[in-house]
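Bumping my old thread because nobody answered last time. Still need a sequence for this structure:
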């Protein structure tokens, strides 16, 4: 099969390509990525030059480029990872989120209609469901939980999901959607909680925990997510949504304390800062459907996955050192100066 993978230079798309190009030499993967601040070709060094892999620099909103690529490559399936993904940036400036996360999806699906496709897969998020209360551990997001997005980021992802389902119903486009909980693991950009805290703790810098650190996220190791997406793309039913999660609910404070303990750093580094506006309280997934229908099971428990992740950042300083110099410095100052 020939896959178009968009956003393959980012965190999850990068892990997906590294895994799939190596384990599926019979398939070809074309990676279309704009290389925004969040994309890095360093992540993909190990697969560069492989006969079943090609990188194309470009924007999913660029209709001419996307159509030309479809005409050249005759894809069997599209897996759309490309997105603006950081909630805090979406609060600062929503515009690009709406453009990439909604219009980009329209451009890709229009090309699928024009050139024909076996499957369009949209990589979505649990954030489209809004949040759950902290005091109701019995409540979990299911595929039929109503959409109730809180941030411009999650609203853009929810909009895209609605558009994907509309293209299925109106035009018969063969689509699937997967909605996953928070990912962690190698190659995650250090604006997100876990890599940010690891790198700042390593430098003995203060760790900015929003509010009281009580918000809960349901953490999944990135390669477990990649395997789930591969299963959905190959075996999922057209028009269906699959929730992905590993039952690893942790408060932010628990996560930060675990990282500090592993690095033998003191808890005095924790610094409670002004909360995120509209901050979702709790995310928790019911992954029963993908487990029953497709036999998916996560391989990593949080305790072991977080150890592997910390170890990875300790041994891959070359990957993140480039990132935290230059533009990243101004980002940190801009985003955190008013929180203290
Ligand atoms: P990321 O921010 O690390 O990477 C996004 C990638 O998309 C980057 O390589 C970037 O260059 C590329 N990109 C951005 N705009 C583009 C455009 N217009 N055209 C082409 N490429 C573009 O994101 P991630 O964490 O790897 O997330 C990937 C997908 O998974 C997203 O759709 C996100 O909504 C979803 N998701 C993420 C998580 C998580 O915890 N990170 C959880 C659930 C779902
Ligand atoms: P993040 O990694 O941005 O993912 P998301 O908002 O998509 O869940 O944040 C995870 C949680 O960590 C979220 O509740 C916000 C919190 N957080 C902090 O407390 N401090 C920080 O500096 C960051 C980036 C996040």
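Sorry it took so long. Here it is:
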């Amino acid at each position: 099969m020939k896959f178009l993978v968009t956003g393959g230079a980012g965190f999850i798309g990068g892990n997906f390509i590294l895994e799939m190009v190596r384990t599926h030499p019979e398939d070809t993967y074309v990676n279309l990525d704009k290389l925004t601040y969040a994309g890095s070709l360093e992540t993909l060094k190990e697969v560069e030059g492989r006969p079943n892999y090609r990188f194309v620099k470009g924007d999913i909103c660029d209709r001419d480029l996307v159509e030309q690529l479809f005409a050249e490559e005759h894809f069997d399936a599209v897996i759309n990872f490309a997105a603006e993904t950081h909630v805090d940036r979406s609060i600062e400036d929503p515009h690009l989120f709406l453009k990439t996360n909604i219009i980009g999806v329209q451009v890709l699906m229009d090309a699928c209609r024009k050139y024909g496709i076996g499957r369009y897969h949209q990589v979505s998020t649990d954030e489209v469901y809004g949040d759950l209360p902290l005091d109701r551990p019995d409540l979990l997001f299911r595929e039929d939980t109503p959409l109730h997005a809180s941030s411009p980021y999650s609203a853009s992802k929810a909009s895209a999901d609605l558009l994907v389902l509309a293209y299925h119903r109106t035009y018969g486009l063969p689509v699937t959607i997967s909605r996953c909980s928070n990912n962690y693991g190698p190659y995650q950009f250090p604006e997100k909680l876990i890599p940010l805290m690891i790198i700042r703790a390593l430098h003995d810098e203060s760790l900015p925990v929003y509010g009281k650190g009580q918000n809960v996220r349901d953490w999944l190791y990135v390669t477990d997510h990649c395997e789930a997406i591969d299963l959905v793309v190959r075996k999922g039913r057209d028009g269906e949504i699959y929730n992905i999660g590993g039952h690893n609910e942790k408060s932010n404070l628990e996560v930060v304390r675990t990282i500090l303990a592993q690095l033998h750093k003191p808890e005095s580094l924790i610094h409670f800062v002004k909360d995120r506006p509209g901050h979702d309280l709790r995310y928790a997934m019911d992954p029963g459907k993908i487990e029953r229908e497709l036999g998916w099971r996560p391989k990593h428990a949080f305790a072991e996955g977080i150890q592997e992740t910390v170890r990875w950042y300790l041994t891959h300083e070359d990957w993140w050192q480039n990132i935290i110099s230059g533009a990243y410095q101004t980002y940190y100052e801009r985003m955190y100066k008013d929180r203290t």
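The chain has one domain: 2-188+221-248+284-301+329-336. Let me know if any region looks off to you.
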